[in-house]
Amino acid sequence: MTLNTKLLRSMQTAALLVLVSAGLFAQSDRKAEQQAPAANAGKSATENRGATPQAPERAHSDDSYVIGANDVLSINVWKEPDVSRSVPVRSDGKISLPLVGELQAGGQTPRQLEQEITKRLQSYISEPEVTVIVTDSKSQKINILGMVSRPGTYLLSGSTTVLDAIAMAGGFKDFAKKKSIYVLRANGDGTQKRIPFNYKEVIKGTNPEQNVKLLPGDTLVVP
Fold first, then answer.
1. d(Cα 46, Cα 167) in Å, to the nearest integer?
2. Which of 21, 103, 120, 139 has the greatest number of beta carbons closer than 10 A?
3. Is 101 left (phi over 0), alpha (psi -120 to 50) or beta?
């Protein structure tokens, strides 16, 4: 056997040893990866087994929104599915719930209604956790009519003014009488109040007080 042949065989043997070692290390790493999740899962199960269940975080309830007729309310009483439900506010402003009975929701904020329901449930449930969320705000509507791009019925959001409403409706059409705009607002006795709005004066800062905050049920008319 020549020297070159011996050298070639020695190199082949060394390369084979390297490949075998690499394969053994790869198998060891895969085995460790497979065992790690199982060990972690077992640890988590052990830790969670003795954990005390916590009440869910209370959903945010609006302290300024006033509930009105036709609104839809989601009322949740923690761990009491038979009492929790989605209910519409009737035209008289009232709702009905199991154990609670009939109560006035219209005119109250969600927070106030939570407190009233909690008070009534205390006779039946120990420390009731009540959350009231308005899921469909059907009472907070205004109408925008006349020479605007998109006349129709719109939901109020926050402190909507006359200028805000005009923007919501896409602005004026051609030939709109911007000096003769007015808001129709219902009075408690069934009559209507007419509130004038001169667009050109308001945007110039002459009569900014005409840019009133709109209320549910208002109708903005752009001749």
1. 59
2. 139
3. left
CA-based nearest residue to 100, from 92, 108, 109, 85: 85
Residue type, 148: V
**Cross-strand pairs, 194:** 184
Block residue for tokens 């009737």:
90
- Residue position matching structure tokens 């082949």: 12
**Per-residue pLDDT reduced to its tens digit, 130-172:** 999 999 888 889 999 999 999 999 988 778 999 999 999 999 9
Instruction: Match 């605007």 to its residue by tokens.
Output: 148
pTM (global) more than 0.85: no
pLDDT at 72 over 80: yes
| Side chain identity at residue 214, one-letter code | L
Instruction: Give me 160's structure tokens.
Output: 């909507």
